Structures are given as C-alpha cells and as structure tokens.
Amino acid sequence: TRGLAPSASRAERRYQMGIAECILHTGGASTTAAHADAGRAKVGSTAFAIAALRAVESRRLHPLFKCTASENLFSLHGGAPWATRMLVLLFPLRRQLACLMPATIAADMVALRTWHLDREIAAALERSAGLPPQLVIVGAGLDFRCVRLAGSLGGGKVFELDFQGMLDEKWALLGAAGVPPPPHLVSVGCDLSLGPAGWVDELRRRGFDDRRPSVWLLEGLVPYLKPPELEALLRAISELSAPQSSLLATFISPTRPAGSVGASVSVSMNKYTTESPADTLSTFGPAAVVTIGELITRCGARGETMGIQPSDASYTFATACRE
Rounded to whole angstroms, how far apart are CA atoms 240 and 283? Predict the structure, then answer.
C-alpha cells in the first residue's frame, strides 16, 4: 500500500493497486527483457505508464503541454496495451468513477514533470552558443520530445539511448499510427547498467560531437540505477560534455511520506535515492534543485487543482551546468 493516500477507501486502495499492476505488468515489459539484471527486466513497462499519463494531460481542455504522439498511441485504436488505453480514455470520468481517483497524483506528477523539463530543455538549448544543439535523452523509453520539441532544435539532433527492444517497439507502434522517426533522430540501443563502453563510441560514430555544447536528459532514470552504475554514467556524460552543456535529472528522496509523490512512484526496481541531488551531479557541474511541491506555485491556476502538496519535497529536479 506504499504511496496510497491515507484517506483512500479500501475499495479505492484495492483498485489503485490494480492500476499499478496493469500499468507495470501489462505491455512494455518485453522491451527491456535483455536487462542484465533480471530484477529490473520489466522496467520497460514504466515507459508505457509515463506515455499514457502524458496522453491524459494532452487531452485536457487547457493542458500544460500537448503530446500528439502519445495521444495517438493511447487512442481507442492506438497500438498501446488495452489496459493503458482504457485508463487514458476513462480518466476524464475519474470524478464519476471513484475507483480512478487514486491515479490522479501520478497524472499530476507526470504533467508537472514534463512541463518543467520541457521549459528547462528549451532554455538549455538556447545556450548552445549559436551552434546546432544536441539533445541526448538517456533512458528514452516512450519519450516523444524528438517530435514534440522539433521546433526548438534549430537544425540540431536528438540522440536516444535505451534498450534496442524498447526503441524498436516504440517506432513500430508509432509507425503503425503514421508517425515515422524524424530525420534528426539518432537511436542508440544499449543496456545502461553495463557501463558507458556499450554506447559512448556508438554515440560518437552516429554524429555526436563532444566539442559542441549538449543537453542531457535523465528523466525518471536515476532511481533505476545502482550507485556504481550511476557514477559511471555521470562520469561518461561529464567527459562527453563541452562547456555550456547542461544536464537535467529527476530524483526520488529517501524521505517520502505516504501520499507523497515520491511514495506514489516508488517501485521495487528502484535502486537509488538521495536527499542531495546537487551533490550527485557535482561531477558535471553546479546544479539548481527544485522540488515537485515548488512547481505547484509556478504553473499558474492549474497547480491549484492538483493533488500535490506545495510542501512535497519527496521528488526533485536538478539542472546542472558545465562550466
């Protein structure tokens, strides 16, 4: 029952656990079956959960962002698993269907997280010293920023790192929906838990230029890495990053009360938490940190309708700059 609101009824608590089972164990798990750690081999299913909740936000009357690719994938006739499509399609009725209410905090988190990171990425890309920017999405999953933020790239490239099975499934599903991979996208298949030797050379070979500024995004990835794996990844990213590069990452705190965002998104596959994201990213450069609760006050009237408390510090965002 970790992460369930204390006020939830017994029926709601049972149903919330059912939603978690559907999202985490129905569809998507096979995309990361090649994981070197069998205990984390189903991490691919979380990519479907995040994309589904982006589709939920995109369908709102006044969304914080619009992700057409996610909407297509989770439409009535989309290619996503049936259970996640039904969650997206029925979510607007959550106030009439009390059993759907427990999913609200996860949807609010994804909305805030995507909105904030989109803004941070746009600001970081503007600092690319007039050169075509390079955006590297590490552990990309079903991220569609290569399509959604194409206008901000100015002729630059998007590099996606993830399991080859995930990348293949992602573009097979979108291709069937009439959305082909854009020409500025470069996909590199790898198991990030095995260290940088499995992707650094391929990244360079596919066009990444470590003499130019770059923007690195680790959204939702850090908690799924063991400390030595994360240290090796951050060291490699730092070595590949020229001055004026940026690194954006999300973190879960070890202090996460019941009902908090951190508690709601924690799963058994998580291996890393921290109270000090800036220290974690110190190899790359100084970092500014903001909590999920602080974002509530930054997103206007929409924040007042969310179920996240302004005091919630269980989930944080860090933006580090390479000097």
Answer: 12
Task: Give the other-Cβ count within 10 Å of 14's Cβ.
Answer: 14
Q: Judge contact between 161 and 193, C-beta under 8 A.
A: no
Taking the C-alpha atoms of residue 206 and residue 186, their distance in angstroms, rounded to an integer, is 7
Half-sphere exposure of 282 (CA within 13 A, CB side): 4
DSSP 40: G
Distance CA 278, CA 301 (A): 29
Question: Rounded to whole angstroms, what are the CA distances from 166 to 52, 173, 268?
Answer: 16, 11, 21
Q: Which residues are within 8 A (CB) of 304 and not within 5 positions of it... i.e. 6 or more apart?
A: none
Distance, in Å, from the CA atom of 169 to the CA atom of 9, rounded to the nearest integer, reads 37
CA nearest 319: which of 200, 240, 203, 219?
Answer: 219
Q: Are 132 and 155 in contact (CB under 8 A)?
A: yes
3-state secondary structure at position 137: strand
Can you tell me the distance from the alpha carbon of 252 to that of 271, in angstroms, rounded to the nearest whole number? 10
Rounded Cα distance, 93 and 233, in Å: 42
Phi first, then psi: what are they for 315, rounded to 5°? -135, 130
Sign of CA dihedral 20, 23, 29, 32: negative
In tens, the pLDDT along 179-229 reads 889 999 999 999 999 999 999 999 999 999 999 999 999 999 999 999 999
What's the predicted TM-score (pTM) here?
A: 0.90
CA–CA distance, 55 with 48 (Å, rounded to integer): 11
